């Protein structure tokens, strides 16, 4: 349909094709969100000690093979570990993996290839097929290889601030412009924004396993934030605390509704020691 749209010379037909593609893309985005949330639930239950988790291998019989690569990139962005997602059907799995900066995931698969039916890719993105009975041995050997070859400091994502903005700059126009640079992943990370002196507008709370939720306010504008694995800040934050925030922006879609959400990367409480 995309090719038909690009070569179409009939305006009516072009509109019809564009609407069909937009509808299919909306369904794909919903599938992305559903798969991402399911994968996060599996990870939260499966990996209890994140500090001792060098990589993640998650699988399901219900995931669409067409979205697991996109979702794997989102999981790397959230947990900053090499991630492999596998979709199984009748005991045979097709997988997609994404890596963190400076770690060669393809080389890791070469080391464990005796567990795989086939594989391919490059340093940061791989694909593979595997029989279900080999998945536990594959994950164990992969985890050992990653732990031996990934330095601890690489596990900590470097935080590079791209631009300082104010909350009144955060709107659909800005985020739509950012989304044009997708897909995001290693070598093409989401831009990190920085805003000074925002006020915590609600009582912060934790969700999931140590994830921080809060709302901030400045110049009459509010922004909802979630900070993955930043729940330890909860005891230090209070309503009306003044903080500096580093964050990325994304759409939070639920059904037919969407809102802008900030993904908190780091924060500094004013008056507190760094």
Keywords summarizing the entry:
12 strands, alpha+beta, Diaminopimelate Epimerase, Chain A, domain 1, 274 residues, OB fold (Dihydrolipoamide Acetyltransferase, E2P), 3 domains
Explained architecture:
With 274 residues, this protein is an alpha+beta fold. It folds into three domains: 1-34; 48-158, Diaminopimelate Epimerase, Chain A, domain 1; 163-269, OB fold (Dihydrolipoamide Acetyltransferase, E2P) (Beta Barrel). Helices cover 32% and strands 31% of the residues. It contains seven helices and twelve strands. It has helices at 2-7, 11-46, 68-79, 105-111, 135-149, 152-155, 172-179; strands spanning 56-60, 83-89, 92-98, 118-121, 125-131, 163-164, 193-200, 205-207, 211-218, 221-227, 242-254, 257-269. Strands 1-2-3-5-4 form a five-stranded mixed sheet. Helix 2 crosses helix 3. The N and C termini lie far apart (54 Å). 25% of the residues are buried.
Can you tell me the residue ranges where pLDDT is under 50 for at least 5 consecutive residues? none
Question: What top-tier CATH class of the largest domain fits best?
Answer: Alpha Beta
Give the overall form: globular
Number of beta-strand segments: 12
Strand order of the largest sheet: 1-2-3-5-4
Overall SS class:
alpha+beta
Helix content: 25-40%
* Count of helical regions: 7
The CATH topology assignment of the largest domain is Diaminopimelate Epimerase, Chain A, domain 1
What fraction strand?
25-35%
In terms of quaternary structure, the protein is: single chain
**What's the number of domains?**
3
The appropriate CATH architecture of the largest domain is Roll
What profile does the largest beta sheet have? 5 strands, mixed
Q: What's the alpha carbon Rg, rounded to whole Å? A: 21 Å
Order of helices and strands: HHEHEEHEEHHEHEEEEEE
Q: What is the CA–CA distance across the termini?
A: 54 Å
Mean pLDDT value: 90
